[in-house]
Write a structure and sequence with these properties.
By secondary structure, the protein is mainly β. Among the domains are: 61 residues, Immunoglobulin-like (Sandwich); 102 residues, Immunoglobulin-like, CATH 2.60.40; 104 residues, Cadherins (Immunoglobulin-like), CATH 2.60.40; 98 residues, Cadherins (Immunoglobulin-like); 113 residues, Cadherins (Immunoglobulin-like). The protein has 6 helices and 37 strands. Strands 30, 32, 35, 36 and 37 form a 5-stranded mixed beta sheet that branches. It has a 4-stranded mixed beta sheet with strand order 6-12-11-8, with no helix packed on it. A 4-stranded mixed beta sheet has the order 13-19-18-15, with no helix packed on it. Pfam families: CADH_Y-type_LIR, Cadherin. Its main location: membrane. Cadherins are calcium-dependent cell adhesion proteins. They preferentially interact with themselves in a homophilic manner in connecting cells; cadherins may thus contribute to the sorting of heterogeneous cell types.
């Protein structure tokens, strides 16, 4: 209520209200000054209002007192329940956690005034989820309430949390939320085999490295806590088998490390241990996190191929051994209980295998052709053995036969030598060192000896000096040699080897006599050089070259003059038709210029077109010429032109112009067409010149001339 001291209660004072909510939320009685709320108030929406009031004279409308300001504060009541703004919640806690392990903290918000009464004082409690979890009434922290909660027993829990204001008293408002709690796994369970003995049956033909069986230990844990490692306990059969873990199924895969043989051993027994890879030290007291099982493997007998006594056979035979000679044998046996007979044959792959044969029953290998070590020193082929009872079961072995050498080739000079001797050579001078080679397989320490043949020993020109190290030197025995007397010498050299039987050969060396300087450097070995008394000097060679060049220039000039002369002759020939045609470069010559031959034959009837109109002038009266019959082509003239055109095309000395095509067609730009005789008809009697008088005054003289000529034609009958 507002009241002014100047208000005497006689109605002379009027009260006004302004500010927040004036007229909408609050109203004032202008006479009494009472302030009323015209709608309900919500503290959570606006906790206070600032208003201004004033007393005004009713008559003068002037304020009686200064404007005063006052605040209306909204008093709170408990009209809002607590709310979980972040709910519902999701949390997790490891299994086997102790009592009081922290899980999650929840928080509820109450919109009421926390400074007034207990409207905003919240208390937390669990409506659903006991006795597994508990909650702090003031803080809202959720903790475990039972020890040793096992994930393998129950993994998911749903807890219902309540928040109540007014300190949890009666009449307070409450809100709820859900907390989903999951127990996470820990490695609290060791792996266990579901049975103590596993039986496996494995064929003896199983390949090394192949999987022959699977065993599995069960671990109720999850993820990496359930990863299992399998190991074979050292003992019987442990060296024949191996075990690995299948990462997808956590099974133990048993693999074969070595081949099995039923005839050798029929059964194997060993133990397999399964253990966890990731251990938790908190649960070591529970016991060892591993388990052991026994694996028994029974080997199944299979029908196997024969087995050779050796993995590979190596044999030797001398070359040139007679065909049919036995050089060795292979042996294979059937180790199965039935013990079937074995048959042998060569695995034919190429023609080399045909050099040998094998006895199908005994397995003996013999030569089938003569062998040559120099051609093939080693043979490599395969022998196949099959069971008689089951020919499809075969085994293969590799056979290597080395061909031993027999001394059958004599030694020879290793490379052809180009030996020369100077004319001024002295006796005892070494002019060539030679070596020898033998196609036979030379044994260690084999030596070659060199000597002159008996027929050459009597000629004292050259000699052979054996150095005893498989080389020899060719030495001179004369004091000087003359090319004029003898240019070439042939020296027979005998070479022997040291094998048995001894082989020797005679090799003829060619020695050429050459001209040398005083230091022994060869200057010339050609025969022609003997007959040249002196060499040509540099000046003489230059003079010879200059003479050759001058002669070439003279020949070129002569050929050029000949071509020019021929060209001039062609241009000045009066018989050339081009001389007549070239004078038609200007029109109006008349018939006098065509006395050389009938030029009318050159007319081209294709250029005669109807109704041709001149475009350079505008005629006074447009008159069209009379239609003239087309003139047939003159075949002789066309053939003549084509012949001359072809001759000039292939003639390299012809001048590069031809004006026939230019002057054969005239008058394209004139209405009257060409006045040249080239476009005239062959027979003048067929012409009608009456149309010339219709062309205007410019052609009057021409019309009179041709009209007069027509009137005096004696052939016409009037």
């Amino acid at each position: 209520k507002l009241h002014s001291d100047l208000d005497k209660g006689v109605g002379t004072v009027k009260y006004t209200l302004s500010g927040d909510g004036a007229g909408t939320v609050f109203t004032i009685d202008e006479t009494t000054g009472d302030i009323h709320a015209i709608r309900s108030l919500d503290r959570e929406e606006k906790p206070f209002y600032t208003l201004r009031a004033q007393a005004v004279d009713v008559d003068t409308k002037k304020p009686l007192e200064p404007e005063s300001e006052f605040i209306i504060k909204v008093q709170d009541i408990n009209d809002n329940e607590p709310k979980f703004l972040d709910g519902p919640y999701v949390a997790s806690v490891p299994e086997m956690s102790p009592v009081g392990a922290y899980v999650l903290q929840v928080k509820a918000t109450d919109a009421d005034d926390p400074t007034y009464g207990n409207s905003a004082r919240v208390v937390y409690s669990i409506l659903q989820g006991q006795p597994y979890f508990s909650i702090d009434p003031k803080t809202g922290v959720i903790r475990t309430a039972l020890p040793n909660m096992d994930r393998e027993v129950k993994e998911q829990y749903q807890v219902l949390i309540q928040a109540k204001d007014m300190g949890g008293q009666l009449g307070g408002l409450a809100g709820t939320t859900t907390v989903n709690i999951t127990l996470t796994d820990v490695n609290d369970n060791p792996p266990r085999f579901p049975k103590s003995i596993f039986h496996l049956k494995v064929p003896e033909s199983s390949h090394v490295g192949s999987a022959i069986g699977r065993i599995r230990a069960v671990d109720p844990d999850f993820g990496k806590n359930a990863e299992i490692e399998y190991n074979i306990v050292p003992g019987d059969g442990g060296n024949l088998f191996d075990i690995t873990t299948d990462e997808n199924t956590q099974e133990g895969v048993i693999k074969l490390k070595k081949p099995l043989d039923f005839e050798t051993k029929k059964a194997y027994t060993f133990k397999v241990e399964a253990s966890n890879l990731h251990l938790d030290h908190r649960f070591h007291s529970v016991g060892p996190f591993k388990d052991t099982a026994t694996v028994k493997i029974n080997v199944l007998d299979m029908d196997e191929p024969p087995v050779f006594s050796k993995p590979m056979y190596t044999m030797e035979v001398y070359e040139d051994t007679p065909v049919g000679t036995i050089i060795g044998a292979v042996t294979a046996q059937d180790l199965d209980a039935g013990s079937s007979s074995v048959r042998y044959f060569i695995d034919w792959k190429n023609d080399v295998d045909s050099y040998f044969t094998i006895d199908a029953t005994e397995g003996t290998i013999a030569t089938n052709e003569l062998l040559d070590r120099e051609s093939t020193a080693q043979y490599n082929f395969s022998i196949i053995a099959s069971k008689v009872s089951n020919p499809l079961l075969t085994s293969k072995v590799n056979v290597i036969i080395n061909v031993l050498d027999v001394n059958e080739f004599p030694p020879e000079i290793s490379v052809p030598y180009e030996t020369s001797v100077c004319e001024n050579a002295k006796p005892g001078q070494v002019i060539q060192t030679v070596t020898a080679a033998d196609k036979d397989l030379s044994p260690a320490g084999q030596r070659f000896s060199f000597r002159l043949s008996p027929e050459a020993s009597n000629k004292p020109n050259f000699t052979v000096h054996d150095y005893r190290n498989n080389t020899a030197g060719i030495e001179t025995r004369r004091n000087g040699y003359s090319r004029r007397q003898q240019e070439l010498y042939f020296l027979p050299v005998v070479i022997e080897d040291s094998s048995y039987p001894v082989q020797s050969s005679t090799n003829t060396m060619t020695i050429r006599v050459c001209r040398c300087d005083s230091d022994g450097t060869i200057l010339s070995c050609n025969v022609e050089a003997i007959f040249l008394p002196v060499g040509l000097s540099t000046g003489a060679l230059i003079a010879i070259l200059l003479c050759i060049v001058i002669l070439l220039v003279i020949v070129v000039l002569y050929v050029a003059l000949r071509r020019q002369k021929k060209k001039d002759t062609l241009m000045t020939s009066k018989e050339d038709i081009r001389d007549n045609v070239i004078h038609y470069d200007d029109e109006g010559g008349g018939e006098e210029d065509t006395q050389a031959f009938d030029i009318g034959a050159l007319r081209n009837p294709k250029v005669i077109e109807d109704n041709k109109i001149r475009r350079d002038i505008k005629p006074d009266t447009l008159c069209f010429p009379r239609q003239r019959p087309p003139v047939e082509d003159n075949t002789d003239i066309r053939d003549f032109i084509n012949q001359r055109l072809q001759e000039n095309d292939v003639d390299p000395t012809a001048p590069p112009y031809d004006s026939l095509a230019t002057y054969a067609y005239e008058g394209n730009g004139s209405v009257a067409e060409s006045l040249s005789s080239i476009e005239s008809l062959t027979t003048e009697a067929d012409q009608d010149y009456d149309y010339l008088s219709d062309w205007g005054p410019r052609f009057k003289i021409l019309a009179d001339m041709f009209g007069e000529e027509e009137s005096y034609n004696p052939d016409k009958v009037t």
